[in-house]
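DATA SHEET
Item: assembly model
Revision: 1
Owner: S.N.
Input lines:
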Amino acid sequence: MLQSNIPDSPYPRVVIVGAGFAGINLVKTLHNKPFQVVLLDRNNFHTFQPLLYQVATAGLEPSSIAFPIRGIFRRKNKFIYRLAEVEDVSPDTHTLNTSIGPIRYDYLVIATGSVSNFFGNKNFETYGSGMKSLYEAVGIRNYGLKNIEQALLLKDRAAQEKALTIVIAGGGPTGVELAGALAEFRKTIFPQDYPELSADLMHIYLIEGAPRLLANMSEQASAQTHKFLAEMGVKIYLQTLVKDYDGEVVYLGNGEQIPTQSFIWSAGVKGNALPGLREEQIKGGRIEVDTFNLVKGCSNVYAIGDVALMTDNDHPKGYPMLAQVAIQQGKNLGANLVRRQNKEPLRPFSYRDKGTMATIGRNKAVTDIGKLHLHGFIAWVMWGVVHLMFLMGFRNKLVVFINWMYSYFTYDKGTRILLKRHI
Amino acid sequence: MLQSNIPDSPYPRVVIVGAGFAGINLVKTLHNKPFQVVLLDRNNFHTFQPLLYQVATAGLEPSSIAFPIRGIFRRKNKFIYRLAEVEDVSPDTHTLNTSIGPIRYDYLVIATGSVSNFFGNKNFETYGSGMKSLYEAVGIRNYGLKNIEQALLLKDRAAQEKALTIVIAGGGPTGVELAGALAEFRKTIFPQDYPELSADLMHIYLIEGAPRLLANMSEQASAQTHKFLAEMGVKIYLQTLVKDYDGEVVYLGNGEQIPTQSFIWSAGVKGNALPGLREEQIKGGRIEVDTFNLVKGCSNVYAIGDVALMTDNDHPKGYPMLAQVAIQQGKNLGANLVRRQNKEPLRPFSYRDKGTMATIGRNKAVTDIGKLHLHGFIAWVMWGVVHLMFLMGFRNKLVVFINWMYSYFTYDKGTRILLKRHI
């Protein structure tokens, strides 16, 4: 019989569900404060999601962007981690039901992030892949490498093109960065590794419903990104919807059909709310919170990061689902929990926009910092520095830096091993 | 319909099965020679087997010791690689039957290596794990990390010990290096990552049937290894057989029973001969060859490396299954194939023993070079230098070196992520 085995403590117990940017930063803020901190996650590692696309395109190893949770918080007092899946929450009894039994809380913090939103189309999920987890990224890598090996065994040009073509739905940061990395793979790795195949057989489609790519960034960044990707040979469709995918053909809203074995969905995410909350507390999977991240109608349940829906005059639809928002909400909530215990006045969340950036390829990136819009080499270096800064752990920073330098100077990628033989 | 799609060539076709040390070195030797070289492997990468135990103990990432085959031989003329499983060989028709269809050969080279020999005990295979492939090593890592998380959820001390205890059958290099790495994990990582558990609950058993560990090395090396491991708290049983394992308890020949969830088999390997050869050509899974590695009774089929059984006065039971033998046989056969085409006299294989070594832990290794026996720090540095030298690819050497340095100075390991949630 498995039990959570969480020891009793004289301190109030804060249970945090999810070890993403929000959860991790909350734990850090509560270090050495008078709380018993219990962190639950169904993985034993924190994933650095902004670099998932490099794992999917064989540029980085999974462990370079994953950091073991116990490694982050080693030697921390009053900190407890459990590998567990949360089943539901029972706010009335202050209890969380999990795969390792019920867990009582004094404060509950839901930091469960977001999941792919397929808008009810089961086919996208069944025949395609999302790009939200390390599992999906490794799966895309293995599947892609397998498809190229398979294309070598086909005689018919149309069949080869179908095996090599990749269709990405969604022109947000994930779709853009993935399309760029694939175009670089096609240009540098493909001709050297597969001299028997023509790189012209591999088509990369990026399908976006809005009138421009990177709709959350500036017009300048969108235009530059579009130019970069088009130059790299990515076929970009704007104001175009993906209607369906049956595992063989992608059907577009404009009537066009694209035969392909590879369909990646990055056209929408939704909040990953926990079961057990009341229906009126949840909108689009996100949990409605006040400016202190307290869940509406609850006294001791908080939500932070992507899963939290906090609205104000500037953000009538809620804050964007960004790492920076999650990090800042985690830190603010940590400080507020201490204030609440001390019966001091709380401080509402106030977001400090540090800018947004996306990388398209070698020496090609776009950055918005307030009114400043940069692109090209300087933006690309900034992107690299910022991502290394936020990557957890010295070893990871060093290994990622070396992989980047190695790829930059050799035009090679070291990690294209096909780990699952039979998919 | 998948076809091998191997183009016609004016040159004689050498088909090589297996991209281990033997196969890879043969391909290299045949570069720019008048042959069409076709390499088949069921993985798209070469595995550096000597460091598998570091993957199993979370010291290195899989891709650090795996090198994509297409990366090794990029830009090589007349070289063709196919991802394929070989079903059998038909020597009479000079044809190999594979998962991608039949492949004709002028010369066939079998370099399929060795597999775990469970000596007919299905239980060892079903409930335990071998340590011969990257899959098994990653599986051991994930399973071990999962067991520790599970031990936290148990109340009963005996149940916790059973979850944490690891029994290794076989005191050869694999068993010794694995036991040493696990003992270091228990000493350095365990207390920091799992302060709720006592490291005393984790027992490491090393069970060997012979009167000493590392029976293929010198008496001095065996004695020193025994001393190192005993000091590190490994429970060593000599002249003891493992009779059975039912998934719950390991039954030893001396009547002792060890309750454990983790049983690793490194007590025997056998040749991985291809089906289709005649029974009298095979002994213990190895294929009998003459001193030119030609399979007895065949005119154009060769076997090299672990799978080849070459006997002489000094080696009445065949050469040991070592990387050095495989490398040297691959190179010698390559040169002989050229000579055979040129109708020049062939040179028989002659083995140059460059010494053997094993590492037990931090600053602890043993080395035999002829009559010279070294141990301790100097042997450990030599071990590291030699392994880095033989590891394929600059990126891999650099990443492994950094991981080693990082672990050495921080007593930390970076890659203990549990990638499969549900095993």
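QC remark: The first helix of chain B runs from residue 21 to 29.
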